[in-house]
Amino acid sequence: MNLLKDLLRDGKFKFGFITLCILLFLVILSFFSPYNPTIWNVVPRDLPPSIKHIFGTNSQGQDIFWQITFAIRNSLIIASIAALFSRIIAIIIGLVAGYRGGRMDRVLMSINDSFLVLPLFPILILISTLIKGRLSFVSLGLILGVFGWSWDARVIRSQILSLREREFTFTAVLSGSKTLHLVFKEYLPFVIPIIFSTIINNMSWAIGMEITLAILGLSNLEIPTLGTMLHWAISYQAMLLGLWWWLLTPVVISVFLFVSLYLLSVSISEYLDPRTRIQRIGIVKE
Amino acid sequence: MTILKTENLKSFYILDILGIKQSVMAVNDISIEIKENEIYGIAGESGCGKTTLIKTIYGMIEPPLNVMDGRVLYSIDGKLVDIFSLDEEELRRLRWEYVSYIPQGSMSVLNPVTKISDSFWDFIKAHSNYKDKLEIEDSIKEHLNAVGLPLEVLNAYPHQLSGGMRQRVTIALATILKPKIIIADEPSTALDVVAQRAVIQLLKNIQQTQKNTIIIVTHDMGVHANISDRIAMMYAGKIIEEAKTEEIFENPLHPYTKYLIRSLPKIGDKSYKVSAPGSPPSLINPPTGCKFHPRCDSFKPECKKIEPQLIEISKDHKVACLLYSKEMGQ
Amino acid sequence: MKENNELLRIEGLTKVFSLGSVFSRIRIVAVNNVSFGINSPEIFTLAGESGSGKTTVARIILGFIEPTRGSIFYRGNKITNLKDIEARSLFRKEVQAIFQNPFETFNPLRKVNEYLYETCWNFNVSRNRNEIDGIIDEALKAVGLSLEEVRDKYPGEFSGGQLQRISVARALITKPQLLIADEPVSMVDASLRMSIINLFKELKEKNNVSVIYITHDLATAYYVSERIAIMFRGEIVETGPVEKVLMEPKHPYTMLLKESIPEPDPKMKWQESIRLTASEEEEYLRKGCKFAGRCPYVMDICRKEAPGDTVVDGVVVKCYLYASKSEKTIA
Asked: What does DSSP assign to residue C40?
């Protein structure tokens, strides 16, 4: 499509996009995995990378290559759920508080600020410790989502507040627009770049959180995710035993994942920024 | 005595959006001569290139602005100096001591967290050799008195002053070192009519006292009528007419100038006024030949092909229009 | 009772803005007891510099700001604090507006014709696609443009003059009875202004539309309107026929305004210097006549008490200079 072509002109987007495509390809491969990732000892242990086992095997007798396909898939699912859930909350609260103002705004912002100042990490540790064994990755995603919206809700709200004062709001009212229509047709195009760049940032944050929790041993360690792989590698002291492939694989994959998400986020939000969009409008026509 | 001149000056904005290069031809082959002890007005509408012209004259060339061709020459101590041949230090010294620049919207140039007196103080210290504190204070007070500003403003913060007062303070700041050339870009445009009058009168006073040159850029013909000695009309990056102020108003020659002068409303005059048809052209893709031809009612086929040169038709009255160059047999 | 063809009447309109923090609040009376009426059809100018309150008055009339006190009557019906949604909608249909900055009037990320469509649709001017196209084209032709030129384009692709004309076209779709134009040409190039100003004249003469022309440019006000009210720091200081007020100004502020206009005529340069105010806020908070600080004819009483309205020679003035010479004094 035209959109993709435009975006691909940006070097940052190209790199991020290609990397992500490769990672997504690995995710698709996970559906064809010959091994069940939760079962141990399906292959010989501690084998270095070879043609049969591309990334080698670990001390639990699992093929690392197939493990990682599941790990990427699950980490991305957690991150996507967290990001989506928190965006929805942020948009609703930001839009309503910004446009309505008054009492509604004050109430919503108090709730918002309470969430902002909550010490996130200790709470997550607490929750994880309490429900450790039974925390499915969907629930983890939802919980991360519940804690990730407050910053963006404020940002969206300020954007709406400034848009409300602009003259085209008056023009829209004079054209007979009703409130809902006003907010969605007039303001949303300005709010979307914020949402997009924060969606991807949020995903990175969620993945990071998941990895941290897993390394500390606080999440469900049976499910293969980037974090749990790292956890097992560390607890089995892979480094000391010379099983570098076990530790390196999730680390390198994580780095690629973070970098590609970052590049995508930066290039997309630059593309969607109203100021550059306005500049582009004239050019494309001529 | 010429104090400043440009020779075939061309400066464009080179834009690069999404890999597509475009040139905004804001200053397109301009040659003007500005004399000592005069107020030279540059008139024209938004987007005609006047701000770019004076930025180039002042040497403020920052990407995406590029000087494509031509020279800007200042007459300093009897010698002609090409401003683009100076290095940074020499340029810096040239500015504010020899030529000072009052940009558009300059009311916001004052540091909002310091008092006015401190702004003056910092400025003088940075640009001159005065060491004695008392000497500096005296010179500030003297200058404010000379320009008619109340000394109380020295103790105020910028936000406490009205827009008109801030603008006058900025002008006082720009002229305290008695520069030979003052370039003012739309000095009164954002102000109310009464404040505007005060600002324009201030500039006039300064020019009469210090006997220097003021280059004033504004689209407001009323302001030009009040202050400028000579006016240069700019259209689409070119100078299309240049003459003494009275000449421009009483005997405009270029069709655009004619349209403009005749459409200006005046109190006491209820006769029907007409605007020029169409709109100003794009500077990226201007019309061929004479840039005004799509809107001109004296249009002839040659106007599309030939670009008229700025030619002196009568004493001190130059026009760039084929109607007149034909008569001259050129 | 009100006259039959009085379209709009403003009575005692006041708006107070409260600024500052919990510890020190300043009350700025942006609009102070403003009253005037508009006939049908008529072009009425509300003139004043920035900070005079004229834009605030416009916004109150349009219902974007609630007044602190006072009432507005449209066709004899009270419209301030109007709760009835249908009546509001009818009001919006008949009273439209255009604003100063043509580049801000439309959302830069939306196509301009979408506003035209919406105006047609929302006010039930038509719900038939083809008919709507026709109506929009007609409105655009009336301002010198056409639907083809405007279709599917964004605001960034037009010049200021064109955008302002499209703004007028949009306002005319509902066939309003009253158009409020807030500084409609101050950001338009001088060579294009008259075409828009002439439009207002045409609207009044051919379509019987009244216009409230808000501006600081007295020259265009003289050209286009019949009556004018001069506003200073929230109050109307002089009202009357434009010939009288602008050719023989009575209030010292009107005199100052008129003298300060840069005449586009080199033979008429300014002669005397004038005094500027150092701080605008100070004038707002002044007791007595707000202009006393700069008035060349100031008297003791001016500083103590605010003058009332006096009628002199068909013009209403707020100035003690005329209090004794009046034909009739309104307290």
From this structure: S
